[in-house]
Amino acid sequence: MKLPVRVGVVILPDRAWSTAVDAWQRADALGFDHAWTYDHLTWRGHRDLPWFGAIPTLAAASVTTTRIRLGPLVTSPNFRHPMPLAKDLITLDDLSRGRITLGVGAGGTGWDATMLGQQPWSAEERSERFEEFVALTDLLLREPASTSHGRFYSVEGARTHPGCVQRPRMPFAVAATGPRGMAVAARWGSTWVTTGPRQVAEPVPTDEGVVIVRRQIAALERACAQVRRDPATIDRLVLVGVSLDSGLDSPASFEDLASRYANEGVTDIVVHWPRDSDPYGSDPAVFERIFAT
Known about the structure:
Blueprint: E1 6-10, H1 17-30, E2 34-37, H2 54-64, E3 69-72, H3 82-96, E4 102-104, H4 123-142, E5 145-149, E6 154-159, E7 172-175, H5 179-188, E8 191-194, H6 206-226, E9 235-239, H7 251-262, E10 268-272, H8 284-291
Parallel strand pairs: 1-2, 1-10, 2-3, 4-7, 7-8, 8-9, 9-10
Antiparallel strand pairs: 5-6
């Protein structure tokens, strides 16, 4: 199927690698443009179920796939510091031979925000930390030697040799919906990421989702204007299935969804690898019919 957007897939890190590897290699063979995994300490109903680390999962995917781009969607400051994260990212870029994209977001108030023993940060503090986190990560991936003292994150005499395979650094995919997050995306992002509306009981239909994403893209363009960036230089990625209908009922349904979002300026659609149960439960046979054609 010829689609007007690039298509990616999220593969949850909820299975042992001995079985998960099949999904990553199949995604590579199906021709997906990019494959991602969630970066959480635990997630939703998986608190007492298997849930593996994103960085080791991506390392394994890097050496068992050949062409597909890879990354976390998304990592956040909730439990990470830019310095060890930069080391991990440089290693992933080496293992994958330059196929890593850093997906990054501000994080939320769930288990990621409390499992290290701290109280959840306020929305204002999350936004402030997010900007500083992205700025320092950018610096560390660009410069082999860095010293920086911030309000939340600091490094002293940091070394990040040999740097990224991708120069000057790997691309950033920045998840944002609010004004401050949009400003971060406009300044540092190669791609802007959205899941659509927030805090909805179930995914909204495509008709409604298109209107929401259209408004968000307008806000992104305003943020780009404020930093004098051409908005055409930032890609727009929509992750469906979280708050937006996935369109995975049939090839025709997904083709219509992709065309609708493409008409709004979306460049990339990301779906979830089919699971046996919700969330993201879907028919593997239909999934194959959609993406194997």
